[in-house]
Amino acid sequence: MRYVLLGILILSLPSVKGDIILGNISESTTNASGLQIGINGTSGSRNWAMSFIVGNTSVDLGSIDLPLNLETDPGASGIPILQIRGDDAANGHPDDNVLVAFNIPAEQTGIQLYSFSPTSSYTLAANTTYWLFLSEDDNLQRFTWRYESPGITPSGDFATYGATRELRDGSAWLAKTTIFNFQINDVTAAVPEPATYASFLVTLAGIFWVRRKIRRIQSSVSAPS
Question: Do residue 73 and residue 182 come from a single domain?
């Protein structure tokens, strides 16, 4: 009986999958338009930031996915740099406080989904505004961050979209209506799926039946004739 009770207890545990904290990536993202990061010949230096507001529940940050297009220039060595920064609420843009740095993914040809993993674990606090900040470390090679028109309002399990800002020439923050494509994921827990639970229960039931059968045989053999 204890095996069955154990199986029922395990079956009652929730199936934990990685949730989307916030995002708007769709199947058409790779065909979307894009705006350059880094140096643009006519617009000067361009870096981009998007804010998001965590709801009433804190959540552990996982990876962040961004659709980027690598525009290859001869001899270029630039790389996209993603950060999460704090909020300068008074001025409506990111502050200079880098809360999370990310590992730099390998370069890919064309429009690809780049997955950025944080360099260390971080918990996004409830009821707090954060900013995704994307820049480039080199003036020679340019990436474009993809977006769709009309823009898709991000949605998710733990946060809401706030605003988009452009940092022009490293000093002027400009309000923008562009909603770039992105996906912020939480930490995925390795927990078996319901089918695994069901298989486990069947095994437990089989063990219970065999043990019961053995006990009946033993009782029959030991009974006085």
Answer: yes
